[in-house]
Amino acid sequence: MSDLLLILVTGLGLGALYFLAASGLSLIYGLMGVLNFAHGSFMTAGAYAAWVTMDAMPSSTAVGLRLLVAVLVALVVGTLVGVVVEVVLIRPLYRHHIQQVLVTVGLSLASVAAVQGVFGSDPYPVAKPSFMRGTVDVLGARLPVDRFVYLAVALLLLGGLLALLRYTRLGLVIRAGVENRTMVEALGIDVQRTFTIVFGLGGAVAALAGVLFSQYAGTVSPLQGGSLLIYAFIVVVIGGMGSLTGTAVAAFAVGLVQQLANYYAASGIGDLSVVLLLALVLLLRPSSLQGAHA
Prior knowledge:
Elements: H1 2-32, H2 39-56, H3 63-90, H4 97-119, E1 124-125, H5 130-133, E2 135-138, E3 141-144, H6 145-167, H7 169-179, H8 181-186, H9 191-217, E4 219-220, H10 224-239, H11 244-264, H12 269-284
Antiparallel strand pairs: 1-4, 2-3
Helix pairs in contact: 1-6, 1-9, 1-10, 1-11, 2-3, 2-4, 2-9, 2-10, 3-9, 6-7, 7-9, 10-11, 10-12, 11-12
GO molecular function, one term: transmembrane transporter activity
Protein name: Branched-chain amino acid ABC transporter permease
InterPro entries: ABC_transp_permease, BCAA_transport_permease
């Protein structure tokens, strides 16, 4: 029983990280129709911004405080990267989806090369706060505290994004602009600026995912964002392209399936089980590729 509880909590924690990685991707696609293959670059930028910030702060400063400051810096960096990418690369190509894919794939490859050129290819260790290294005893199982942190952040983010889209003027403009952009612009509303805000928000969420995943892995590396992006795409497809709630459910399902398969089958089978889950969903529900909202 204790082993099963440990696996379930571990799977939910991993699923929370997958949701953090996929939510920005789902938001940008669902509201703007942009399939952003450079999303992993946003995560990498956030992870390295946090690592540089923590490394630059005095070692006498508590690791938890350094991490908090690093998260704030990463959110700013992720937002700026998202806005610059939207304005410079995506805005001229809103009606050219193939070109969008090519540009974002090229940016993804170029960003990895740039990070390797600046920081090198070797991973760097990331300091982890003492409270996130501990465990808590629940029903005889020693559960890692950091999994609960990831889970709490993911749930707060989901609630915040849904509230933003459903109960704020910005969310109303975003949803109206997606449905009928011409009519909204005729009312004097700058839909283009609103879409830029969405891209910046997606960049900030991706940066947060990059920071927390580096805490999970214990290191930061140039290829980290790309590897996490693969699972983010799988989660988005399973959950329904553009559906935040579907993305959340799919993320937790993928995390649980992966951990259960690794424990009860064999190490490494978890990745295969995720691919099989994706194939099963596409066979039974091919409409997941057509998109959904909220």
